[in-house]
Every structure is written in structure tokens, then in C-alpha cells.
Amino acid sequence: MGSSWKATFSIVLLYLFVSKCCGSEYGGSQMGTLRVDASESSGQLIPQTFFGIFFEAGGPNIPSNIAPWGIIGKESSVIVSTDRSSCFERNKIALKMEVLCDSKGANSCPSEGVGIYNPGFWGMNIEQGKQYKVALYVRSSGSINVSIELKASNWLQKLAATNIIASASEVSDWKKIEVVLEAKGSDSNSSLHLTTTSKGVIWFDQVSVMPLDTYKGHGFRTDLIEMMADLKPRFFRFPGGCFVEGEWLRNAFRWKETIGPWEERPGHFGDVWMYWTDDGMGYFEFLQLAEDLGTLPIWVFNNGISHQDEVDTSSEALDGIEFARGEANSTWGAVRFAMGHPEPFDLRYLDHPADLYDYHVYTSSSDMFSRGRHFDSASRSGPKAFVSEYAVTGKDAGQGSFLAALGEAGFLIGLEKNSDAIDMVSYAPLFVNTNDRRFFTESSGATLHKTTLQMNSYNSIAESAISWKSSEDDKTYLRIKIVNYGAETVNIIISVDGLDPNSVKLSGSTKTVLTSKNLMDENSFKEPNKIVPTQSLLETDGGDMEVVLPPHSITSFDLLKETSSIKIAGADSIARSSM
């Protein structure tokens, strides 16, 4: 199929756009042309591992401390403290609750009892009809009758409740208690309450509340992990960046301290981001999550250098590799086996600047957009880049603004177009608004096509074109993405060279647009669909594609190709790429 063929398509997209954004009226329009060379000879394969995800534990503005236990009742009725009485040698701190009131008499407890409560991380999301396992260790100086309740945010509604009753002999030493509660109502800001009306001293340790229905049964919230899976990441970088180093190595993430029974993990103070973590999400859990997502783990191991000191950790890194990859009868492979995973994990990558060089960028939205051209002049003969951390930060970011998404989308297009100089890309925040990421979920392993854009003194456009094969319908598409970062409407004529004019099926071709009335608009729990892509079918009248790009928008055109007349590049070994 020679490049002399020119497909002539026309899409008459009538788009009346009147918008007020951040208090400004936008008028006028810009004109331009975009030529896409979709011929086989122009295609360049994007690395299979191009787009991934990155777990960064916290940060200076988003500390993830679990809230401390709060007290239910007056100080004259209950005193709560901690001591070093836990049965776990590596985790000695336990909670001591001294109840001064009693079930009857002059100093009787209030009818609802006294005790402690904990909202988890910013409130527990309890859903009606679902079951939750409460596990805890308890001991007491006498018999106990403790109410375990999941309460709504108003503290009036009991979503689920039960009692644990034990004689003094049963709880004179530490005893593990597990109960399953079924929620009778829903509240996204619930809390766990442990109360009693009986005088005495009760110690609690290692208290947890977990839904029984988790992602593949491995403890992760199904809804959150499904969002990660929808990003179709080709790799998962963990457990963080500065979090791994620590300000001092005594406070660094040390993988051996994060495996084994959760109760035995000592946890550590992250002195870079200034919060405590119990390391319940440890090395094993990260490897398990990567496996559950069907993606490749990239372990950011501690190379012995923190911000202030250094030690030799080469043997620790080698042991970590054996834990992940070793046979079940090896020293560290046996530890993995004991944790319930006899087969080795598919650990192929370590994050260390040897084969690739690391590139991080945190900046404003406009600067992020302009950095899409950063790699245009990068060497194609030396090591490739691993853009392992990037994000719009500061006032432009908000809590996930459309302005941030717009700048990052333009940056991603630039990375995609320079995929011969970049091997991997991962966004810094793990949980993000997926509405702009959906435009790039098919890029890993796809074929990049050359594009030529001509505009008159308007540099607020970023564009790219790829061919990709859908894993859902096994069909091949030509995707043209365009980000209009500017405040003006842009009219562009798109011509596609290198395709047989009869090879495009417009009946299955679509246009997807993401935009918003205000640049600082955000999706939230109250308005989860405030900013969402809109998709429509394309129409044609036989000419070139004449498209209108709204101000501040991301637009994607997916042209369905007749695969019978198109050769798929690397079809034998690459699942999702085509010419």
C-alpha cells in the first residue's frame, strides 16, 4: 500500500461554543491544518511498557496518618493511654482503656457506654448489605462486655453492631477476636466504636475493619483497584520516591520490616513526609497488587543513600529480589511461600538509574504543557528516559482540576511523540481523575504516526496519532489526539495520507471531547461526573476532516480501520499495535 494513496474524509462538526471560563469571555478562532502520515513506512512502535502507574506514599500536603483513637465519654468515666504491653515483640505499643464508671450504682456509665472510636482514613466507607470483618486483640483485668459498632457520621445511626463477651479467664492474656458485621445502612464517613458499661481495665491492640469483598480476595478495595485497572497500566512503580530514602536511613522504607504477619511489622516514621506508617501495605502487598492488575512491578529499592547518610544495602536488595523471584525452597522465597504465594512474582525491573535515566517534573499547568516539547531534541543514541514522576502542582492543581489535566495531557502527547527517546512514563499521584488518562490507555505498544501541524502563530496545540488494536472487539483504530490549551476556538482541517480511502469504516468511528466551563472545575464525591468526556459518532460528506476544537479541550478521533487491508505491525509478538 503506497503512500500516494490519500484518504479523503470529511466530518462536518457543527459546534456552537459559548463559554465563560474563570470570568473571561472567549471569542475569535484560529485556523490550521494537520497532516497525518498513516503509512506503514512512517510507523514507530511505542514501547510495550510505556504508560504505567506509580505509588507515592503521601507528601508534604497530603499526610496519610490514620487518625488517633478518640475518647467516648467524660474523663471522670474513662481514661485512655498507651503502654508497651503488646504481645508482639516488634510492635509493643497497645491501647489501655481504664473504665471508671460501672453498669449500676452512683457512678454508673451512660446508657450508650464509654470507650473509644476511630474513623479510619478520613471516614470509613460502609455500604448497606456488605459484610465487614472486625479483628482485634484484647486482654483485661476482669470479664468484658464490649459493644462493637459501625456508626454513621452523625453517631446516631448504627450501621452494624455486635457484642464480645468473655470471662476474666478467657481474656487474662491476649486473645484474638474476629467478628463479621453486615451493614444495615450506608455512610461514606462512618467510624468504628468500641464501648462498654462495665468498670475495669481493657487493653486493645491491632484493631482493623476490612470489607470481606475485596479485589481478588487480597484485601484491596474493589472500587479503587478497578479504577487502577481501567488505566490499563503496563507497569506499577512502588513503594515511592523520597519515601524510600528517608531523611535519615533509620527512617527509610526497609522491605524486610514490611513482610510477614501484619501484627509483627514494626512500622516506621517517614521523616521526609513527616507521618507514621504501619507498613501494612508492604513489599509483598505491592507485588501482589501488581500481579492482580496484570502489570509488571518496578521495585524502587533502597540503595543505601538517604538525604543525610548512607550505608551498603546491596545484600538487602539481592535478598529482596530472591523474595520476589526465588524458588519456594530458597531462603527468602520460603518466606514468600509462608505468606501464601508459592510461585515467584514476575519482578523484571528495579528502579535504579543504570539502563535509563530518571526524569521528574512538578510544575504549573502552562509549564507542564510547554514541557511536552522537552524531549524533541533529546539524543536518540544514548540511554532513554524514565519519566517516573510528573504532576501539575501548586494553585493550578487544586484537588484535581481540569486545568491540571489539560496541561498534563499536552505533556503526555509530547512524551508519546518522543517514545523513541522515552521508555516508561508514570504519573506521580496514584489515584487521579481518569478522564484525561483514558485518551492514553491504548498507547503502550501502539504504533506512532508522524504528524505535521501548521498554525499561524498559535502554539497552544499539541497533537499525536497512533494506530491501536482493541482487546475488546479485536478491531484496529487510527486515533488522532489534539489538546487545545489556549483560550480560542481552533478550526483545523485534518488530512490522512497513506491509507486506502476505502479502509476506514465511519460507522464505527467516534469523536471524544473533554472540556469544562471553568478551568478549576473538579470532580468530587458530590459531583463525580462534573467533568466527563462526551463521545459521538463521526459523520462524513467525502472531503477532508474539518474539525472544531473548543477552547481548553482535549479531543480524540478514533477512526475504525478495515483490518483486512491493513498489516498489523508485530502482530506475532505485540498484542496491541498496528500500522
From TrEMBL:
SMART domains in the record: Alpha-L-AF_C
Catalytic activity entry: Hydrolysis of terminal non-reducing alpha-L-arabinofuranoside residues in alpha-L-arabinosides
Transmembrane segments: none
Glycoprotein in keyword set: yes
Presence of the UniProt keyword Nuclease in the record: no
SUPFAM superfamilies (UniProt xref): (Trans)glycosidases, Glycosyl hydrolase domain
Enzyme Commission number, as recorded: 3.2.1.55
Keywords attached to this entry: Glycoprotein, Hydrolase, Signal
A Pfam family that the UniProt record links to this protein: Alpha-L-AF_C
Entry's family note: Belongs to the glycosyl hydrolase 51 family.
Protein known as: non-reducing end alpha-L-arabinofuranosidase
Annotated organism of origin: Cannabis sativa (Hemp)
